[in-house]
Amino acid sequence: VGGPRCGASLHEQNKALRIELNANANCAWQIRRNTNQTIRLVFSHFKFAPSSSCETESIKIYDGPSTNSPLLGQVCNDTDAVPVLQSSSDSLTFLITTNSVAFTRNFFAFYYYFSPETRPENCGGQLTGPNGTFTSPNYPAAYPEFTYCVWHIQTAKNSKIKLQFQDFFLELDKNCQFDFTAVYDGLTTNTGLIGKVCGVAKPKFESSSNVMTVVLFTDYANSYRGFSAQYTTVPLPGPVEPDTLLTCSSDSMKIVLSKSYLASLGYNETDLQLSDPSCSPVITNSVIFSFPLASCGTTKKDDGQSITYTNIISLSPTGNIITRKESVQIIAKCKMENNSTLEVIYITKNNIIQNTTAVGRYNVSMSFYDSDSFSKPVHQSPYYVNLNQTLFAQASLHSTDPNLLVFVDTCIASPQPDFGSLTYDLIRSGCNKDDTVVTYPPLEHYGRFKFNAFRFLQSFPSVYLHCDILICDSKNANSRCTKGCISRQKRAVSSYMWKTNTVVGPIRLKRNLRSADNSESLTKADAEETPNLQQYSFYTLSFVVLISNIIIVVAVILKYHKHQARYVYQKIQNS
């Protein structure tokens, strides 16, 4: 156990580090080894300066060979877990920074290389029955070295879990730094630590809901028989699932609480307030808080992979000096992830947390504009253009958060709106693939580019665009939106907060428009000419009939006069 006082480059297969730092430290450790294995790193003990915040003191872990690599996780004074992190390659870096407070900070870290596909038998799994048992690998024989097992226990709703270790023997040390078992109140190992134990004991744990997680971690030496554990289910009294509703959008957060639920906690609508007390709810049959994301005391946190907006509703009695009511906080979180908005609302009741989730989306649109001022969108559909005409496209994010950037990552063209086999790349991974494409620097909520109109060589009248849009935190200088063109080999270098796609079109050439106009004009002229022809034909037929009748009358008269003449001038023959 040991290592340089401030930072190092580490190449061993496994190593334990006992780190001691004072004020104003800024130390980086790089773990790197030429192998096809990945790294597992655990901080089994950490002690920061009292009352320090994550902004002033922390351990930041990066998934790669430097601090420019993607952020894998962060450990600070309020971390409610035993952090165990895993790299995606054979390199990993962690950076420890401390503030100016005079205090000796202590950390214990251990890492080892391993192959993810190898795992001991009976190491972790899903337990879903109302009760059950599980043991450490090889129990009652000694557990293997370099073990990391995770058991997820989930029972029926409206219940909680009681966990009893009937036999327990792990390596003993003061801070449980080497081998330990950690128990979490929930289905994750990121927060909600109930306890961490080692040595010889028979510990008991109890969850607040129907989910619990148990972790076993061992290092490379001093293995013992491990543990045998049993869990049972206990029904939960009272309102387990809060009657609440959380809705998140690009612009706002909306929290709805029923009056009956507040009454079951012993409160009414006058006893609650947001982080910013000046933001009041609307009272109807329910209590409704609705406010823009960047207001009313909402905090924003960027963990390198997602962006989370958090606000807290506090319930406390008014007009009293003392109280015997339970302390309640309603914590609402809108977490913007890759392709959706994950909404999380949970209630803390004397340190008991209950969760509900829902799903929403960012509001992103894309339009063509008539010039590079991007002031007048084109509403015409189809959009008729000249061949080689410069077209201006803009992706717009509709959000009240001013600290977001929009980046056009990929844009392809196709003659069909379903984007079948025939496609053409305009932009790919932020790189311009067409010679006429020009992308504009990210500007707040807008991603812009221009290109010259073209046509597909086969007889297709239309062109559609399908674009992948990334959204990043503008305060993160290393976000994907600031990196521009990234080749396929380097795509994992930086992260983005959220991704969506949009389709715009069709675009058609103006010669198709003229053909359509000429066809329409011809059809209209034919329609106007048809009644004239019909009228002309009617007059001609009438004239012919009239002339025929006149000829017939004249013929009859001539015949009559001829008969009379023959009768007058006929000679009488003598008898």
Automatic annotation (TrEMBL):
The chain crosses the membrane at residues 536-558. Keywords: Disulfide bond, Glycoprotein, Membrane, Repeat, Signal, Transmembrane, Transmembrane helix. InterPro entries: CUB_dom (IPR000859), Sperma_CUB_dom_sf (IPR035914), ZP-C (IPR055355), ZP-C_dom (IPR042235), ZP-N (IPR055356), ZP_chr (IPR048290), ZP_dom (IPR001507). Residues 247-488 form the ZP domain. CDD domains: CUB. The keyword Cell membrane does not apply. It comes from the Eukaryota. Residues 6-114, 123-234 form the CUB domain. PANTHER family: CUB AND ZONA PELLUCIDA-LIKE DOMAIN-CONTAINING PROTEIN 1, ENDOGLIN/TGF-BETA RECEPTOR TYPE III. This is CUZD1 protein. It comes from Glareola pratincola. The lineage of its organism: Eukaryota, Metazoa, Chordata, Craniata, Vertebrata.
